[in-house]
Each structure stands twice: as structure tokens, then as C-alpha cells.
Specification:
- The structure is a homohexamer.
- Helix content of chain A is about 40%, strand content about 20%.
- Chain A is built from eleven helices and seven strands.
- In chain A, strand 6 and strand 7 form a beta hairpin.
- In chain A, strands 1-2-3-5-4 form a five-stranded mixed β-barrel. A two-stranded antiparallel ribbon of chain A has the order 6-7.
- The longest helix of chain A has 25 residues.
- Chain A has about 325 residues and is of the alpha+beta class.
- The interface between A and C is large, with 37 and 37 residues.
Amino acid sequence: MSDRRYVCQLAHNEQISQVFLASEKQLRPNRNGNLYLQLQLSDRSGAIAARLWNASENDYRAFENGDYIKVEGNTQLFQGNMQLIASAIRRARPDEVQETDFLVLRSDEIDRMATRLAEILRTIHTPELRNLAECFLMDADFMAKFTAAPAGMKNHHAYKGGLLEHVVGLMELVLAVAPRYPRLDQDKLLVGAFLHDAAKVDELVYERDIAYSDDGQLLGHMVLAITMIDDKVRESERLSGEVFPKPLVTEIKHMVISHHGEYEFGSPKLPMTLEAVALHHLDNLDAKLASFTQLMVDCPNVESNWTQYHTNLGRKLYKGAGFRVQGSEEI
Amino acid sequence: MSDRRYVCQLAHNEQISQVFLASEKQLRPNRNGNLYLQLQLSDRSGAIAARLWNASENDYRAFENGDYIKVEGNTQLFQGNMQLIASAIRRARPDEVQETDFLVLRSDEIDRMATRLAEILRTIHTPELRNLAECFLMDADFMAKFTAAPAGMKNHHAYKGGLLEHVVGLMELVLAVAPRYPRLDQDKLLVGAFLHDAAKVDELVYERDIAYSDDGQLLGHMVLAITMIDDKVRESERLSGEVFPKPLVTEIKHMVISHHGEYEFGSPKLPMTLEAVALHHLDNLDAKLASFTQLMVDCPNVESNWTQYHTNLGRKLYKGAGFRVQGSEEI
Amino acid sequence: MSDRRYVCQLAHNEQISQVFLASEKQLRPNRNGNLYLQLQLSDRSGAIAARLWNASENDYRAFENGDYIKVEGNTQLFQGNMQLIASAIRRARPDEVQETDFLVLRSDEIDRMATRLAEILRTIHTPELRNLAECFLMDADFMAKFTAAPAGMKNHHAYKGGLLEHVVGLMELVLAVAPRYPRLDQDKLLVGAFLHDAAKVDELVYERDIAYSDDGQLLGHMVLAITMIDDKVRESERLSGEVFPKPLVTEIKHMVISHHGEYEFGSPKLPMTLEAVALHHLDNLDAKLASFTQLMVDCPNVESNWTQYHTNLGRKLYKGAGFRVQGSEEI
Amino acid sequence: MSDRRYVCQLAHNEQISQVFLASEKQLRPNRNGNLYLQLQLSDRSGAIAARLWNASENDYRAFENGDYIKVEGNTQLFQGNMQLIASAIRRARPDEVQETDFLVLRSDEIDRMATRLAEILRTIHTPELRNLAECFLMDADFMAKFTAAPAGMKNHHAYKGGLLEHVVGLMELVLAVAPRYPRLDQDKLLVGAFLHDAAKVDELVYERDIAYSDDGQLLGHMVLAITMIDDKVRESERLSGEVFPKPLVTEIKHMVISHHGEYEFGSPKLPMTLEAVALHHLDNLDAKLASFTQLMVDCPNVESNWTQYHTNLGRKLYKGAGFRVQGSEEI
Amino acid sequence: MSDRRYVCQLAHNEQISQVFLASEKQLRPNRNGNLYLQLQLSDRSGAIAARLWNASENDYRAFENGDYIKVEGNTQLFQGNMQLIASAIRRARPDEVQETDFLVLRSDEIDRMATRLAEILRTIHTPELRNLAECFLMDADFMAKFTAAPAGMKNHHAYKGGLLEHVVGLMELVLAVAPRYPRLDQDKLLVGAFLHDAAKVDELVYERDIAYSDDGQLLGHMVLAITMIDDKVRESERLSGEVFPKPLVTEIKHMVISHHGEYEFGSPKLPMTLEAVALHHLDNLDAKLASFTQLMVDCPNVESNWTQYHTNLGRKLYKGAGFRVQGSEEI
Amino acid sequence: MSDRRYVCQLAHNEQISQVFLASEKQLRPNRNGNLYLQLQLSDRSGAIAARLWNASENDYRAFENGDYIKVEGNTQLFQGNMQLIASAIRRARPDEVQETDFLVLRSDEIDRMATRLAEILRTIHTPELRNLAECFLMDADFMAKFTAAPAGMKNHHAYKGGLLEHVVGLMELVLAVAPRYPRLDQDKLLVGAFLHDAAKVDELVYERDIAYSDDGQLLGHMVLAITMIDDKVRESERLSGEVFPKPLVTEIKHMVISHHGEYEFGSPKLPMTLEAVALHHLDNLDAKLASFTQLMVDCPNVESNWTQYHTNLGRKLYKGAGFRVQGSEEI
């Protein structure tokens, strides 16, 4: 691998001169009239706070959030949190950047998941559902975005390829769980799992930083999916020469718009079919385990059994006495 | 007018032999092994409970809810509520039915409102919005349903033409109120008022009794509207040969899906534009005044200043000392 | 099999003379001064309402809820619901009762599940957890109750053996799902799944009818489990001669008391460990799929795509166009 | 007009020497042991943050919030927000202050609105209601406060004359909307609109800064209005020599105490009359449109289509692509 | 005492011919076309359901709710509940009625409590508060109503004199508890306890049946109290020739309007003073203990340890194994 | 007494050289690259903020929160709040510390309360309850913790001995109030008051700073109490040679687990017995009065009638015009 010092490997008082991904930059007033620059530096292994003292508007404008930047500086353990005091920051030259250092998922991993996605979708027996899935798979533009998008702004799977990872993981859960419930229609459930978050490709903007699009904020991915499904149903009818059963379209849309499970989480309808109920709970299970794990792994209180208090969860999480950040040695 | 005794005119101990609209029929067991038939009889002026003692399964199956039936019987004031004890019930012959006795809105009233609808929509200056509105107006199938549909299952405007009445009323409110707020875009707001409930034409089934369609229950009129708007935008682009501005489509859809104003009432997004906020509050104002008025007018406690307790409102309504059912003389 | 007409097989106008399980008996006043007896009759395939006209206090006192009774009578399709008009009712003689007609789960099925329970628990690697599980398995009194108890008053698994069925099903889910999440401790999770509802053996009384015990109502099964776990931990320490790690006891208790997942459902703590979160969501998934399925199967609106409105769920359920009660031919 | 540079006109790096209204002053510790003064400077066009480095307790005590102060300094664009770095601050001499520069509403505008208020109130036909309104209009002390008070602490109409502006605006809405609902008693509704916030004259203190009075916090304007109405009813009876109908007093009070529409917003009763419902919704409409507009206009994110996230609203607001701060050229 | 059989003494199959207080009368249709009369019969010891078969409109109109009626009939234990099958009912003659049989509180008890009320109020040291209390005590009209009114529609103290009983009980609690908290102003707290429910004399109508007045429903006793306090403050100023301190009036009003403690229970303000907090909690304690006790005593499930489920409380109550209706022997 | 200047006595510009208890220490970055130390200094009379400019990591590590430290410095009145600018800080030598200066409760006060606790518990007549209480009193280890523990993390009684003070205070309330309600079982209620918070001895860690233990966070004091009660019941049975009545254990546990009164405050069951209801309300009364008083006394806005806004209470508190910090002269 590269000789890079990954963020999760940094120790106290290391001399650093390497490339990071920049975000959350702020120019803040020193009360003596001086300014300093504060920002986040990240790579695939995590993120660290950095400061450049005595900065200027020019320093602030020299790069954008989402840029790769070359940073000179020194690490400092400060009350249990590691930070980096930068002495120089500039935009990195393309030849200085090793993309794989910054991607949580390597492109071969993404490829493997995309293949698995197609594989699972082709196990579907119901002809209309299989045709519909095929129309999505054939849409190169959609698939390019679907394999690149994150699954969210923060919390679980908030990185390039995160949407694909979440969806394939969920479909594997469907394959493991559905056979235990004979009345569940596995085909419908697989299509639901595939499409439930599909319109996140348009809800979010994620070329550099992750953010909501205007459409995403005003309509949301559940409503955006309606148009997406209508388009592909029309195409599927055109290709097959047969009318797609309207009640089946309705059931697919119902799974999508009800998958948050409660009005207060933006679902305009509660799950009313067995498959919609199963989809909601499986999605919830996967999302909660992913985000709780992440909160424990990312927790900066290294010496405590507990994470900090998370207001949106209404609790601290218990990492336990023996909690170690697994896999840090293999990044 | 007809020599009919309208429901709202019936007094104690009248001999009745005329046609009513039937609904909510139930065959219930008498505890001696006998059965009786209970049902609602209505005409355009209101509804009255009726009972046929010693009924049979045959009586129960002799007509459907939503049928016109000929009823013989006697009225009875029973603890402040009027009811009708029927001695005979049969399905009415077509020649016995005077349709206008059963329509809250006469067809000329509906025509006048449809004309007014088109008139208001043609005041729109923004070309794209006006074209879009035109596409709806030109769709004879849509307009037939739009002028026939009720605005809801119960509460306000739950009768043929009720949707049109509510929508035109709301658009008149827009015309009266919007000029007072210079930043409100009256054109957008008029389109929002026109389309906010438009998919109720598919959410409800209302040929005889009013009920929810499967699509209506699984998706709801706010989500159904998305497909409807997409279709007409495509048509408008085809007719005009120009691309419809995508942000404008988004704002229209946003007004529609946010018009219930709160997550708990099934809006997947809260109103975020001035027009969406205005639409929500004007719709709410009109709906609340209409339903409160109806609850007061329909209230069977004739001798009390108060309606009964309405659980969904969390209160009784105060009709006041001088409350009279206005217009009963003119029906 | 027996020549019995199972409840789910009964059609209109059948002459019946066989044994049923009685419940919900009520003596109700006829408004002529006569009384009639109303009750539920059930066997393993379902339940049917019955009435005995002109009944007396003696008829009412002739048997208890939970008794097997011999019923003579006639079936009647009444507005889409089947009911039975009884002409004679008496307590059944033991030799008239074929127990297997009344058990949803046959004793060999229960035995098989009990064996599977032990089998799964013996896959546990952590010695202390395995010893603890063993202490429960060795407690013949506990196991007798654990294999006999229902999982609830109503909704899912509300029948003899239902608790065991729910728990083994949940443990199978754990085996299928846990390997997908490397940080989950499968051993802890299996113990959590085993014990989360274990104190339902004391929360409920279920020799005949199912009801809550005084302890069950005043403390609930989550609090009752604390004493149960303390007892077995002490026993396990006595047998092994080693101190059971206190933090491990705490984590087990935490899984149990937090498994309802929210304060409003009676959990005094929210899930704060990965295993507690996983247990809550898997339990929820299994319980919801079981109860939604049951509501669809038991739904008396045979001709509708929809179940009735369930107030506690805040919705109707969509059975779909092609919904059939599967397996009725095999009971 | 004056040669003043209004706050909304200030650009980067302007030399400033003029009078502002001071508020929110704070003396804050510099971490070198030095202090600096932070405050808000405003005029009728808006507000701007200012700082005086190396300040002393004397600087802090040299003026009060609500005072006019003379400020020397320099403007600075700092990360998209304009601020003013002051070099000197002192209390302004009376002859330096041009009151009209600081009033959102000029006194002739206030006079015109007061005239309009009286005009509308004199359209009331119900003699008792008209007499009651007259008693308020004749009370010079009340009218002085009523025309000077703001309508709230922040959000909508939070400036001198804001209460009058909100009330007259609301009464104009009543005149536009009431005729569309024949059962609404326009006279009652006008009195309700006039009095619903009238006790804000005592709830708030607003000679300089706006704040709550002790009475305002302990009782609130809805309860304070009761005493105010009782007083004027007594006066009206004294002047007219006739007993004011008690039920009419009750209905007026009911409109006032229920106009927040929900218990959680401090209404001790829900609206139970048509007029109370109408008042609540019209007031809500006007307040929401005013505050949303203000949040968009005041939004400092000049380059974004979105305002910041407003926690109390639970959302960001969409200003739209073409949003401009209208009227800044005419202040 | 009288030779009356009190309601709480009635056993199965007693021949009854005596006077009761009538309430909740209903004429209900028998499904053979016959009618029967259903009503509640009560005396000071409790209430019992009664039925008169084959009744007519005349029977129904022969008396009003709240009348004393003479009833002939027979008691019947019917599924654990005692009921009375009447053979004849007529309005009672005055000479047949022994008022004391129907009053929960005898007039000497009421007198004693009224005396105690005055006694406690005269312990107040703060001159203004003592004068204010005196103004209420001197108002014969007020005191007549205050000693006659119930404390509520149902639940606790819903009988003649119940308001006085609750208030004096609460003031005794104040005397017992206040000295334990040195910062509590006992004088203010006593006045708060005295006046918190005082306007119930106008909120309720209670000459015969207890019901809400129009004022009570539209304004509520907390708002009605404002006018009452204003009146007495004016009178107190007139009598003493001194101005009543305005902040003290405000604190008294604040205690009254905040004593329900939460917005959702109709308090427009939350308790913000120590005395308001103390009043809320003491009132709550007394009300809850009184109503829980009453629900246990009145519980008709004589053979169960549990009351029925009370929806508004969200629970059943546990009467316990040894629960006896104490004092039934002394009525 | 000592010649110490207590925190609550400090005035502007005093030279200080004495011992304080340290807490909430933070080393914070000065934006010039310098660091400063911020901390709280407290003694039994209150707490004051302090700063040491130009501090180092060594200064930060020189002592722990919970240590006694010797501080040199100067007091400063800064915008109404007193603070201390330290020039030197070091850990105090044992001989410099006068423990009684730092204890809110002196050991003789604690002893007196412990004696009173035993005294009250010995008034219990029910033999089993008295034996049970005795088992707790005899457990020296438990009593040592019970008399040392605070009653909470913050708010009311958050200091050494605070638990004992709260419990004894509550039991005194029981003695004062219970006799007023004849159906209340005073013995049960006393035991409930004694044990309701007893497991706080294990829920909290309080040797130096107060914090939650792992058990405390994962199970909470209500669940921890179950094990504690089971242990003592076993011991009581062993000592008395008699079986403790199981229903009585259940009632005691029920009081404990329901004493927070609502699901959302972590009670897994609502109070269902009279004693449980009484315990909840009395505990609430005492806790609310204690914490409101503390918030008023500790309020740093010396010149205002109001405390700051307390988000968790949803309100400011009104200290009133005449509010003085009583007893500051007697500390």
C-alpha cells in the first residue's frame, strides 16, 4: 500500500506533509483582529480537525470544500482529541492525489456489489417485476449514479458507493429472512429493497461534498421515486409490448413511499401490505446497526465505555469494556 | 318545485311515500330470532335514520347502498331525533326518481362553477402555468371526473361536485387575499389551488356511495397527483414545443404534497415556499369553516346551543342562542 | 384425521353436533325480559360466534370460559360473517374431547421446537452464557411453563406453545442475520432472544383462558425477568464454582428491559448496546409479520381486498386481490 | 431624503460616522485579558453586528440598549455577513438623531392606519359591538399604546406600530373573506380581530427595547384582555345606559382566549364558534406569511436559494432562484 | 337513621319500594317495536342501573333527570352487577323525600367546613390578602354558591358541597405541608388554594343534574376567575381605602390560571412561582387520591382485584386482595 | 467558624488565597496559540467560575476534578456575574483542607437524619414491612452508601447526603399527609418512600464528582432496586423463619418501578395502587419545590425578577420583587 499516514493512525506530535480531503472550512475571527482557518481533513479512514493560525481571506478562498489539499503541519493530542496545527495549506496537484486513499469503497468493491445486485435481481421469477428491474439495470446513466451515490447526508453509508452497499446488504437480508415467512412475496420485496432509496441519486448532490438538491429538499426521494418508476414502467411496457399490471405498480410505489414507517419520518402512508411492513423493518434494522456501529467506531472518547450523548437518539451508546476499533490495522 | 317532503322538513308523525337514496344498510338480529333492517335515507337536504322491523335477508338484498328506493312509512320524533319507521321498501323505478331532489348541486350550478374555474385559470399570466392549466381543462375525461367528484369521504363537500365547489371557492379566496401580500406569486398559487386535491378524482370512488379506491388508500391523492402532473407537463411540452422549466414543476409538486401542512396529516414535506404556506392556510380556513358549518347545520340536538362532542375535533361546537338552520325554507 | 368440521371449514346452514372450546360467554338481556347466551366457539383452526336464544342463568353457569363444551346447532351466514345458532350446550365429557383438535401446535411440534431451542443454545461458545442457558434448560418447572405459555394476550402467537414458537423463530432469525454484522456478539444476542420474553410464563395465566396475573400487571415481564435471571446466575455460580462476570449480567438484563425499544411501550431504558438494538428490531420484525399475517387470515371481510380498520395500528391492511387463506385445506 | 447610509445599503469597506439604535450589547472577555464590546446596530432598514475591540467597563456602561449612539468605524464583509468594526462609540445628542430614520413605520403611516381602524370599526352594525369598539377608540391612553406597540418580541411585526399594522391588516382580510361565508357574523369577527392581541400593549414593554412585562409573562395577553374587556363593557353600559348582553361578552372573550387555536400555544380553550375558528385561521395566515417573508428577506445567506434551518419551524425555507430583496432601493 | 335500604346495601332479589334520585334516563327501542326506559337511580351511598320494560313516551316524560322518583321493583344480580327491574315509576311527592338520604354531605357537615374555611382564612397575616379573602366571605351570594357547588362533572367531589370539601381539604394540606418549605409564602398559597376552583360556581350548573354552563364551556373556570378576582380587589380597595398592590393581584391570578400545570390541561401559563408550583402539585395529589379511591369504591367488579380499564387513565387500578368498601356499614 | 470567605460572600476585587473544590476543568485554546484553564470552584455555599490565563498542559494535569486545590487570585464582577482570575493553582495539602467547609450537610446533620430515618421506620406496624426495613438498617454497607449518596446528578439534592435528606423529607411528608386519607396504607407508603430511590446508591458514582455508573445507565435505579429488594426479602425470611407474603413484595416493587409516574420518565408501569399514586405525587412535590428553590437561589441574574429560561422546564421562573437569598449570612 501507500506510505501514507492514515488519519486513524496518527499519533501525538507527528510531522505531516500529505494530501487530505477538505471540508467544513471556516474563517474565524481572533479577538485581537487576527483570523484563523478551521477545517476538517479526511481520508478513507476517518477525519481530523485542523487549524491554520493567522490566516487571511486569501487562505480561505484558496480552495473549496471537497477539494484535495496538501497540508504541512504537526499533530497534537489536545484533551483526548487529536488535532492538526497546520503551517501551510494549498490545493493539491492532480499527480499528488492517490484517489484510493480517499474512497471508503474501492472501485473493484463497487463493481463486485453491482454484479451481485444484478445477480440477485435476476433471481426474480415474476416476469413483470424482472422486466422492470432489467429496465433500471440497462439504464447506464441511472446505474452510474446509483453506484456512485451515498445513502445519506450523514449517519450510515454516507460515502461514495454507500447507497449501493446499503441496498445490496438489504437485499441479502431479504434473501436470508423472506423464506422464513411463507406469505411474503420475495419478488416484490426484492424490488422494494432495490428501489426504496433509488431516488437518492437525485435527492442528493454528491460530486464533492454531500448535500441536498433543491428537488431533494422540496420533494424528497420517496416522491421523486414516483416519476422514476412511472418512466421505467412505460419503458418496460414498450419493450415487452404488454401492459404492466396497474395494481402491481401501486404495490411497488406503496412500498417505496411507506418505507420510513411513520408519518413523522416523512412517509405519507403507513405500510399496509406484508411486503411494505417487512421492507420497513429490515431497512430500519440495517440502518440502525450501521449507524450505531459507526457512532461507536468514530467516537472520540477513546478512554470511556460510552459514546457522547446523541440528542437525536436520546441516549449515549455503550461500547462496552472490551471495545476496540477493529480493522484499524488493515484500513 | 317538486311536492316532495325534504328530509330537513319532516316533522313528527308524517305519512311518507316517496323516493330516497339508501346508504349504510344493515340487517341486525333481533334477540328473539327476528331481524330488522336499519339504513340511512337521504336527499339533497340531509339524512334520516330508518328502520324496517321484521325484515329478511331478501329485504336486505333487494337493493344496494347507493340505490334509489321507494319507502312507505311513518316519521317519529324519538328523544329529539327524527326517525322513519318503514313499512315497505323497494328499489325505485327510474321514472319515479327526480335526480335534482338528490343533488346538493344542480347541474347548472356545476356548469357555472366549471366556467368560473376556466375563467380564473385564464387570468394566469405566466405562459407555462397557463399552458399547463389549459392541458387539464382540455382533458375531457379529467374534467368529467373533476366536476363530478366529492372533496372527501365525509366532513366538508362530501357530495357530487363538492371537489369543484371547494376548489373554485379556494381560488376565489386566492384572488381576494393574494393581492394583499406583494411577494406571493398569484399565478403559482392559483395553479396550486387548482391541483392540490385534483387526484381525489382517483383517490375516491364515487359513482354511488363515496369510498376510497385501492390506489387512494395505498398512495393517497398527494402522491397520485405526481403522475398526473408529469403527464400534463409532458403534454404541455409536446403542444408548446418548449421545455417546461423543471424548477417550476418542482414548486407545483411541492405545493401539492405539502398542502396538509404537517407530517401527521400525511404531507411528506412541510411547506417551504411562500405559496405553499399560503395554500395550506387558505385550504385549511375554507375546509374548517365548511365542516364546522356543516356540523352545526346537521346537528340533531335541535334544542341545545351545543352540538355533540366531536372526538376528532376534541370539542363541542357552540351554535349560539340564535342559531337557526338558514335556508331550510329554500333548500 | 378426525371427521370433525373445523371452524374454518364451516359453510352456511350446516347441522353441527360437536365439541368446541368456549370463551367470552355473556348472558345478555333480551328487551322482552328474556335472556340469551352469547359466546365464542373455537378449535385450532379459528373461532366463530354463537348464540343460544332463551337462555337462563343456569345455562350461563353450566360451564366456564376455557371449558370444552358439546354444542348442537346450525350455522348461518349473516351479512358475510358465519355464526352458529345453538339449540343445546353442555359441558363435554372427557372422552368426547380430542385434544389435538384444539391445539394450534401439536405436542410433537412443541417437542421438536424445544429440542431445537436446546440445540441452538448449545451452539453458544461463551462459557458463562452457555452455563446460564443450561441452568434454564435444566429447570424442569420453568421449561414446562416455557413450552406451554402463549406469547401474548392477543395478536401474535396467542396460543399454547406460542411463546416457544416465537422465541425459536427469533433465534433462527438471529442465526441467519447476525453473521452479516461482524461486530454483533451472536452469543449475547442468542441469550437475549431466549430470555427477552421468558418471564411471560409468570406475567400471564394461561391454563384455560389467557389473562394477566397480578404480578404481570403490576410489574410486567421485563421486571419479572430480573428476579429470574438473578436466580439462575446464582445457580450457575454455584454449579460452576466461579463468579459470573457482573458486566455480563448487566448486558443481559439491559437487552431484556430495553427490548420494547421505546419508553411508551414500557421499556425503562432505550437499547444502548448493539445487541440490544438488534434484539429490539428483530423481535419487532417477527412480531409485526406474525400479527399482520394473522389479521389478514382472520379477517372476516371475505369479499374485500382490505381488512377492517385497526385502531391500534392506525390503518387498514391490504390483503391484495389474490389473497387466499392458505393451508385451510391442511389445517 | 437624508444622506444617511441605511444598514441595508452598506457595502464592504465603507467609512461610517452616523447614528444607530443600539441593542444586545455585551462586554466579552478576550482571552488575553482584554475585553471587547459586541452589539447590534439598527435603523429602519435592518440590523448589523458591530464590535469595538479593547473596550472597557466604561464603554459598556456609556449607553443603554435602546439608546441612539454615534458610531465611527469601518464596514467589513466577513464570510458573507456584513459587520462593522467600530473605533469609537458614544451616546448621540438629541440634535443628531433623525427619528424617521429609525422607525419602520412613519408617523403619518401610523396615523393613516389608525384612521382606517376607526373607519372599519364604524362599519359595525350591531349597536352593542359598535359602542364597545367606540369605548376603546375614545380611550386616548389605550390608543396611544395601541398605535405604538409592536406585535411581538420577534418574528412578525416586531417594531413600533407593528401591532396596529397587524390588526388593521387582519381586519382588511376579514372584510375580504367574511362575505364569502354567509353564516359568519362579520361584526363579531371584526371586534375579535380588533381585540385579539389588544392586551399586548400591557404584555410587552417597548419604550426602548422590546421585552415582556412581569404581567405579560405571568398572565399573558389573552388573560390580560379579560380585565380590559370587562372595563370597557362597564364603561359602555354606563354611557349607553343599557345592559350589555352577557352572552355577547362571553363570545368576544372566547374569540380572544382561543385565538392561538391549540392548548400547546397557550389557548385555554379551543375555538368553538364559527367566528373564533375564522379568527384563528386568518390570524395564523397573516402571521405566517409575514414571518416567512421576513425570514427570507432578512436571510444573510445571500448566495443560496435557501434560508438557514429554523429549528422552531422544523425546516429551511426556499427563497427560490429569482429571489431579490424587493424595495431595498426605496427603503 | 331511616329504614331505607341504601343502594350500597342492596342484595339479590329484594323487593323495593322507595324514593331515588333519577338521572341519565333514556327511552330505548325494543326491536319488536316496544320501548323500555333505562335510567340511573341513586342515593348518597351510590348508584344502580334500572329498567322499566314496556315503557312509553309518557313514562319517559313523567319526570326529569334530577327529580326524586318513587320506584317499585325488584333487584337482580346480573353477571356480577346489581340492577333493579322496575314495575312502576312516578315522581315522588315532597313529603316522601328525606333529603338527607340523598346528600353525600349533610348540611351540618357543610356548615362545619364553611366555618373551618373562614377560620383558616383568618390565619392569614398579610393584610391585603386577608382583606381580599374577607370580601369573598362577606359575599353571601358567592358563599351560597360556593358551599353548594360540586368540584366537577364527574371524578372527584362531584356532589353538592364537593367544591367546599375539596377546597378545605386542600387548605388543610397547605397547613400541613407549607411549614416544611421555608421559602413558600403560606398566605399566598392559602389564597391560591381558596380561589383556584372558585369560578366553578359559574362554570357548572348544578341545581339538579351537574352540567357545564355556556360560560363554563366557552371560557372555563380559570378565565372566569379573573373577573371574579378583579371585582373583589376593587371592593377590597373601596373598603380599605388603599390601593391593592398590583403585583400581588398578578401573583394570585397566576396561581389560578396555572394550577392545571400543563398547557394540554387548559392552563394558559405554566406555574412560574414557588406557590403556583406547590398549588398545582397539592391540588393534583388531592384530586388523584380522591378520584382513584372513588373508582375503586364504585367499581362494580366485586369479585376481582382489579377495576375495569379506564381509558383516560390508561390503566386498570389494583384494589388489592383485601379491598373492602369501608364504611358501608355507617354510610 | 473558620475565617474562610465563602463563595456566596465574595464581593468585587477581593484578594483570595484559600482552598476550593475543583470541577469541570477545561484547557481551552487561545487563538494566539496560548492556552487558558477554565474551571469551577466550589465550597458548601455555592460555586464560582475561575480562569487561569496562560496555562499549560501541566497546569491542566496537576489536579483532577473532585480534588481540593489551593487557589491564589482576585475576584472580578463581570457583567453581573462574579468570577475569579487565578494567578496560581495547586493541589491542596490534606492539612490545608477543612472538610466541613465543603459539605452541604455536616456529619452531625447526616447522623441526625439517619437516626430520624430509623425512628420513622420503627413506627411501622405491619410486621413483615418492619422486618424488611430492619434488614436494610442492619446492612452497614448499604447504610454507609445510603447516607453518603446524592439524590441526583444535578437539580435537587445533588450533594453528599442529599439522598438521605430527600428520603427523610419525603417520609416526613408521608407522616403529615397520609392520615388525611383513611384508605392509604401508611406502612406501605413509608416503605415505598424509603426504597423508591434506594438503588441510587448503585446508579451513581459519587466519591468525588457525581456520575452515572455503567449499571446505572444500562438498568437504572428502578430496575436495580428489584435485586436489592429480593436480597433483603430473602434475608428477612431467613431471620424471621417465615415466608414473606409474595403479593406484598409485588406491591413494594410496584411502588418503586412506577414512582416516576409516566412511561416517558422511565417508569415501565404506571402507578396502579393508591400508595403508588401517593408516592409518585409526594415525591414529585418535594423534588419540584427543591429544584425550583435551588434554581432561584443559584440564579446569577441578581438584578432581575426572573431566572434565565430553563429549556427542560419550558419556562423562566419568577423570583418576585422581594426575592433575597435567605440564610446567606448563616451559611
